Amino acid sequence: MIITIDGPAGAGKSTVARKLAERLGFTYLDTGAMYRAVALAALRAHISPTDEQALANLLSQLRLEWYNGRIFLDGEDVSEQIRQPVITELARRVADSPTVRAFLGHLQRHIAQQTNLVTEGRDQGTKIFPHAECKFFLTASPEVRAWRRWQELQNRGIAITYEEVLRQQHERDQQDAARALAPLQPAADAILVDTSQLPIDAVVELLLAHVRQRLGWPEYPEGIATDRARPPS
Ligand code: DC
């Protein structure tokens, strides 16, 4: 079973998807982390995000794994490193690469074959899992989203002004919307949720209620499904 959560940066997707997955006993997948990990690998290998051939070579040798909410590059946990602003910037350029999108799309579908999934990103309900059982599109006002991102960066000790976060976010929004391959847009059958005024836990409850209703599982016990994902070797 697949539940997709798409939406712009700062809409609360990651926290909501993680908590929803916990409540259902599903695997949580952060596809943005995958694009970030590829960006980190490209940076380390001095590869330009527009060099398709070099990216293809890189991907053919790369071991990219997702386990227990963490992302691993050739066995190394890079979950923290991929949150640096330099990677944020590079990830959005890497996300324009058809080679990278095809590679990661394949990997995401492969993971979905092994486990029940709550997957979040930009294209999960539209391109990767058009037949997902339940789709959500989370959004919030630009100011609220930028404020959340700014707080997150502050907590990580990254010095940046709120205005700069808002400016960068505006750029990313435009780029996400204009992307030729997988532009950010809600799937026709996605449930739209504006999280501007809602605390995270209320959003999780709202989504959970929709999941139960959509699947006709009013009595569905939480945590019934098992996560069969394997640790990276
Ligand atoms: O959600 P995020 O900021 O961690 O995503 C990192 C980048 O990857 C961002 O520029 C959007 C892009 N992305 C994408 O194109 N498709 C996805 N499914 C997930 C993320």
UniProtKB/TrEMBL annotation:
The keyword Lyase does not apply. The keyword Nucleotide-binding applies. It is found in: Cytoplasm. One of its GO terms (molecular function) is CMP kinase activity. Residues 3-212 form the Cytidylate kinase domain. Belongs to the cytidylate kinase family. Type 1 subfamily. Keywords: ATP-binding, Cytoplasm, Kinase, Nucleotide-binding, Transferase. This is Cytidylate kinase. CDD domains: CMPK. It comes from uncultured Planctomycetota bacterium. One of its GO terms (cellular component) is cytosol. GO terms for biological process: nucleobase-containing small molecule interconversion; pyrimidine nucleotide metabolic process. ATP binds at G7, P8, A9, G10, A11, G12, K13, S14, T15. NCBIfam families: cmk. It is an enzyme of class 2 (transferase). It comes from the Bacteria. Its EC number is 2.7.4.25. It catalyses: dCMP + ATP = dCDP + ADP; CMP + ATP = CDP + ADP.
